[in-house]
Write a structure and sequence with these properties.
This protein has about 240 residues and is an alpha/beta fold. The protein contains ten helices and nine strands. A six-stranded parallel β-sheet has the order 3-5-6-7-8-9. A three-stranded parallel β-sheet has the order 1-2-4. α1 links the parallel β1 and β2. The protein is globular and about 45 Å long.
Length: about 240
């Protein structure tokens, strides 16, 4: 099987609400590798009014973790990034490099508050796009207004926005409503990336395999390859999807 690539995870130790230490990070990476995930973009939160990891440190920490993983026989490739919580400063921070895109590409992983309305999300993503970036909407199923309207997702895709869902959402770990919504998006091929949004080695571990097998079995191997590998490779190469 062609390896999976996870574009959204919180495995970098001690920098946000994800992995607290290197030991946990290694457990998470081992889990990912055991399920066929061999590439991961580490996306610690970048939030306003928070102590965020600077881009230079982010690169150094990513390389240090990858070297440690390799020394433990965990042969994964790690790349730096951020999950950027949208604010009025986001465009300036992306343009200045204070907030990191995914693996140094033009792709930016953007998140919002769960209660933000569709129009707010739409306008914000348009602003990021107008600045020359390729916005990826993080875990679209988390936003209550959007999770009620598949047509909103369709409108964003028509704008050129990319859509990411969490594997656990597809597999029903956040309720039947979220499962139905994400599976409907997959059925309509309205998802560009499935990622883990992993935060620990327990209930939010980096599991992708069950979801990939679901997509392969229920939809098609071609589509599964696209959303678990091919599109992520285009991000890493800074190519247009």
């Amino acid at each position: 099987m062609v390896p999976s690539i996870d574009i959204h995870c919180h495995i970098l130790p001690g920098v946000d609400d994800g992995s607290p230490n290197v030991e946990t990070s290694l457990k998470m990476l081992k889990t990912a590798l055991s399920e066929g995930t061999k590439g991961m973009i580490l996306t610690p939160h970048h939030k306003p009014m928070h102590h965020n990891v600077g881009p230079d440190h982010l690169i150094d920490y990513t390389n240090e973790l990858m070297e440690t993983a390799h020394s433990h026989g965990i042969k994964v490739q790690l790349f730096p990034g951020n999950e950027v919580y949208y604010s009025d400063q986001t465009v300036r921070e992306l343009e200045s490099g204070r907030a990191s895109t995914l693996a140094g590409s033009r792709y930016a992983l953007i998140e919002f508050h769960p209660t933000d309305m569709y129009k707010t999300i739409h306008n914000a993503l348009y602003a990021v796009q107008a600045a020359g970036f390729f916005p990826i909407l993080a875990h679209v199923e988390r936003y209550a207004d959007m999770a009620k309207h598949v047509k909103y997702v369709d409108e964003l895709i028509d704008m050129g926005i990319y859509i990411q869902v969490n594997a656990n959402s597809v597999m029903g770990k956040y309720g039947l409503g979220i499962r139905h919504f994400t599976r409907e998006l997959l059925k309509r091929e309205m998802v560009h990336f499935v990622a883990t949004d992993a935060h620990d080695s327990g209930s939010r571990a980096p599991h992708l395999l069950d979801c990939r097998e679901y997509v392969t079995g229920k939809l098609s191997e071609e589509y599964a390859l696209k959303i678990f590998h091919d599109n992520a490779m285009k991000v890493l190469k800074d190519q247009i999807i």
